[in-house]
Amino acid sequence: MEEVEVNLEAQFEEKVAKDIRIEPKDWMPDAYRKTLIRQISQHAHSEIVGMLPEGNWITRAPSLKRKAILLAKVQDEAGHGLYLYSAAETLGASRDQMIADLHSGKAKYSSIFNYPTLSWADIGAIGWLVDGAAIMNQVPLCRTSYGPYARAMVRVCKEESFHQRQGFEIMMTLCNGAPEQKKMAQEAFNRWWWPTLMMFGPKDEESPNTEQSMRWRIKRFTNDELRQRFVDMMVPQAEFLGLTVPDKDLTWNEAKNGYDYGQIDWDEFWSVVKGNGPCNKQRIQTRVKADQEGAWVREAALAHAEKRAQREQQKVA
Amino acid sequence: MNTKEWPLWEVFIRSKQGLDHKHVGSLHAADAEMAVQNARDVYTRRMEGISIWVVESKHIHASNPDDATAFYEPANDKVYRHPTFYEVPAEIKNM
Predict the structure, then answer these.
(1) Considering only CB atoms, which chain A residues are within 8 Å of B34?
(2) Which InterPro entries does this UniProt record tie to the protein (chain B) (predicted)?
(3) Is residue B93 one of the residues assigned to a domain?
């Protein structure tokens, strides 16, 4: 019996090494399944909670055009959450359990959404920086070893690039506007730059899951690799906007052909992860309230469907 | 938390006239009508489809990947089913 197990594991490793995708009914190690359920459900939760900081500005968008765009973006985030929950369900996770884990605080979501959106410029900064960082993280996931996750990510990535561009456009409009508008943009940039760098996760030497995830080809690049790429990509864009990166240590390093950047405040990172960010409690409360207040709708829809099915059956009989 | 989860549905979408419906993912809905409407909102926000099929996931029966080798074996040794098995003289055109 044990020999069979070893054999399956070897076959699995071989498939992964050859970049053959793992599909839901294929044999996989328990730890691989667990890692994926954790990662995909956290990813789904991030999309769902990610609607909240932006939803805050839908009714106050500065024009009808901006409002329509923001609505479409927030609707996309809901869609992304749903693609991902459905990918996690192919691994045997239950939707209700995932939601319950989010609400109880057992499951995490991206800490970036625990920061408040204080001005309209924050909506620009989120699209440009946060979605920019998300794309950096997500593009390699289109080739992740688990089929349903990879396919969900292909859809997500296709839709995400409009999110980043609309954010950049908001920033550009503000930066080309009145001095007050330019100031708003700079302040939003100052607020979001460091939390965005934290989105890539802890430093490589402090990221316990990275090595195994790389071996299973769930992850393709380490946290620090992606963070470096992001900085190198964003600095010229900030320069184009005429914004100053809020990092006095930022310098071009010719030798590595990239920027050296300052120390990230890891105490802040871990504090927000542990639930003490500016909006952690508010975000979960909002989710729980929405869930509770929608419960009667879900129950009524189910009761209605059951009644209709019964009637159909009686007709047949 | 509500007591009962809405059933799970698999969604298939025809992206344009003339092509097959293709599996795109799944979603929860109370009944078929709602599943079709939700599928429109979740999977066709950018004109990805012109026709949607939904089927409750529990009604899908699938082959077992563990049996794949034996299951597809009968097709494996019949190379003569492929045109490349046959030798055609160079002088023969259009075959």
Answers:
(1) 301, 305
(2) PaaB, PaaB_sf
(3) no
Query: How many cross-chain Cβ pairs, A to B, lie less than 8 Å apart?
Result: 60
Chain A hits for B30, CB-CB cut-off 8 Å, are: 298, 301-302, 304-305
pLDDT given at position A317? 77
Rounded to the nearest angstrom, the gap between the alpha carbon of residue A285 and the centroid of all alpha carbons in its chain is 20
Question: For residue B73, what is the domain's CATH number?
Answer: 3.10.20.520
Check CB contact under 8 Å for B66 and A94: no
- Given a cut of 50, the residues of chain A with pLDDT beneath it are none
Band of residue B1 on the pLDDT scale cut at 50, 70, 90: very low
What is residue B40's predicted lDDT score, i.e. its pLDDT?
Answer: 97
Chain B partners within 8 Å of A302 (Cβ)? 4, 6, 30
**Would you state the pLDDT for residue B2?**
46
Nearest-CB residue to A299 (from B2, B41, B64) = B2
Q: Considering only CB atoms, which residues of chain B are within 8 Å of chain A?
A: 1-6, 8, 25-28, 30-31, 34, 41-42, 45-46, 62, 64-66
Strands A258-260 and B21-28 come out as unpaired
Show the tokens assigned to B29. Answer: 């809905």
The DSSP H or E segment spanning A53 is helix A51-55
Q: What is the pLDDT of residue A2?
A: 56
Q: Which of A245, A296, A290, A66 is nearest to B2 (CA)?
A: A296
pLDDT score for A236: 97
pLDDT score recorded for residue A5: 64
Residue identified by tokens 């939707």 is A95
pLDDT tens track for A187-237? 999 999 999 999 999 999 998 888 889 999 999 999 999 999 999 999 999
Residue B73 covered by a domain: yes
Confidence at residue A83, expressed as pLDDT on a 0 to 100 scale:
96
In a domain, B2, yes or no: no
Count of domains forming chain B: 1
Question: Using alpha carbons only, what angle is made at residue A311 by residues B6 and A299, rounded to the nearest 5 degrees?
Answer: 25
Domain contains B86: no
Distance of CA A9 to the CA centre of its chain: 31
